[in-house]
């Protein structure tokens, strides 16, 4: 196991990992302790009372973070003719059909979101084993299979993120950057938690949102008092 640097040790002991904090206090601690030489991401982890192995306990969806993500999201679009031009005009980074398929099959996956028009799904379906494990497969429930490609591209570029519960019942997501104001991080926190609550599956039994923790890319985790988050 790699040894912690003096700085990492100092960060690890600066925050009581067992103490529950209010949301604003937690975000303030995250910003204070994000001392890396780069603009650290602010991340959230939510433990849910679900078992995603059961179809009626899957939690998945999209949410637009009102203050954005702080990241430049590259978007690939499968479309032809007018729809292809609409996607380009909306800011898509890569647009194509068979040529895009071949590029992806060759290992060129330099994008974070894939959008497709409905008529292209026969083609895109051939990439299931490539895009699926990476969480990039277009899905009509997530708005990434749509005839409105321009709208979907703008949403992806404008702070929309996808979320999906992992096997252990945990959802991870980025809420922005440590350079964001505390107010903007709080807006994104509230929007994300609200989306998770609204996505509560029918099969969830007992307490749904069990734990919430915040952290920066290189900083220690900070536990949030779930009781303070009224919507959960």
Characterise this structure:
With 232 residues, the protein is α/β, with parallel strands linked by helices. It has 2 domains: 16-69 and 160-228, Ribosomal protein L1/L10, rRNA-binding domain (Ribulose 1,5 Bisphosphate Carboxylase/Oxygenase, 2-Layer Sandwich); 75-157, Rossmann fold (3-Layer(aba) Sandwich). Helix content is 31%, strand content 22%. It has 8 helices and 10 strands. It has helices at 6-14, 23-33, 81-89, 98-105, 121-124, 128-131, 149-157, 182-198, and strands spanning 20-21, 41-48, 60-64, 75-78, 94-96, 113-116, 160-164, 170-177, 209-216, 222-224. The strands form 3 sheets. Strands 1-10-9-2-8 form a 5-stranded mixed β-sheet, with helices on one face. It has a 3-stranded parallel β-sheet with strand order 5-4-6, sandwiched between helices. β9 (209-216) and β10 form a beta hairpin. It starts with 5 loop residues before the first helix and ends in an 8-residue tail after the last strand. The model has no long low-confidence stretch (mean pLDDT 92). It comes from Sphingobium scionense.
From the structure above, extract its key features:
single chain, 232 residues, alpha/beta, Ribulose 1,5 Bisphosphate Carboxylase/Oxygenase, Rossmann fold, 5-stranded mixed beta sheet, 3-stranded parallel beta sheet, 8 helices
